[in-house]
Amino acid sequence: MNLPEELKYTKEHEWVRVEGNIATIGITDFAQGELGELVYIEVETVGEVVAKDEVFGTAEAVKTTSDLFMPLTGKVIEFNSEISETDGDNPGIINEDPYGKGWIVKVEIQDETELAELLDNNAYLELIA
Amino acid sequence: MKSTPLKDKHVALGAKLVDFAGFEMPVQYTSIKEEHKTVREGVGMFDVSHMGEFIVKGKEALNLIQLISSNDASKLKIGQAQYACIPNKTGGIVDDFLVYRLPEDKCAEGEQAFMLVVNASNIDKDWEWISSQNSFDCSMINISDQTALLAVQGPKAVAVIQKLTDQDLSGIPYYHFIKTEIAGFKNVIVSATGYTGSGGFELYMNNSQSEKVWDEIMKAGETEGIKPIGLGARDTLRLEKGFCLYGNDIDDSTSPIEAGLSWITKVKKSTSFNSQEIFAKHKKEGVSKKLVGFLVSDRRVPRHDYKILDAEDNEIGIVTSGTLSPSLEIPIGLGYVASKYAEVGTKIKIDTGRKTLEAEVVKPPFVK
Question: Rounded to a whole number, what is the distance in angstroms from the first to the last CA of chain A?
Answer without folding.
Answer: 9
